[in-house]
Design goal:
179 residues, mainly alpha, 5 helices
């Protein structure tokens, strides 16, 4: 709250706080994503975390073991005598690539979360600035109406005055829009 006090000492009542330069910036053109490997890692992480992947991997292992156990000796390519060494190597290779890919996908998600948190914080600051501005405006209106009427201003009186001012603005708007 202390930091806000220093900002508000310079602020005027003409505009909400935190809105300077928002409309003067030119929006950035969307750029195509050059991070195909990052998207691939996220796809792998999503795919490996599904029951379908676990089912397919389980069926693959069962099929491998059955083939190398029940198939004729000349068609077998992995010996059960040595504990299916090739299957173990294949699964180890898959795991050695899966872990870093999943970590890369998590890092990308963390980066996106950080950006989202920063955007939420900025949005909250703008909302707070708008709320403070509106509160100052309402106080200024109450003070102006109480100066004019020299009596306590109630909500109903303030609403009536605001409606009257809006009606005045509506009647002036067409005149100022015409050339």
């Amino acid at each position: 709250m202390m930091a806000r006090a220093s900002k508000s000492s310079k602020a005027t009542l003409e505009a909400p706080l935190g809105r300077s330069g928002v409309l003067t910036r030119t929006p950035r053109a969307p750029q195509p994503s050059r991070d195909r490997f990052g998207r691939f890692t996220e796809w792998v992480a999503r795919a490996m975390g599904t029951p379908t992947f676990l089912l397919i991997l389980s069926l693959f292992c069962v099929g491998w073991i059955l083939w190398n156990t029940l198939a004729p000796q000349e068609l077998r390519f992995d010996s059960q005598v040595y504990g299916f060494t090739v299957l173990t190597l294949v699964l180890s290779l898959q795991a050695s690539y899966a872990a870093p890919l999943i970590l890369l996908a998590q890092n990308r998600q963390d980066d996106r979360d950080r950006v989202q948190i920063e955007q939420d914080r900025q949005r909250s600051e703008r909302n707070l600035a708008d709320t403070e501005y509106l509160a100052r405006e309402i106080v200024a209106l109450r003070m102006a109406v109480s100066d004019v009427t020299d009596q306590l201003v109630t909500r109903d009186m303030l609403r009536q005055e605001l409606k009257a001012m809006l009606d005045q603005l509506d009647t002036r708007a067409p005149a100022s829009e015409s050339p």
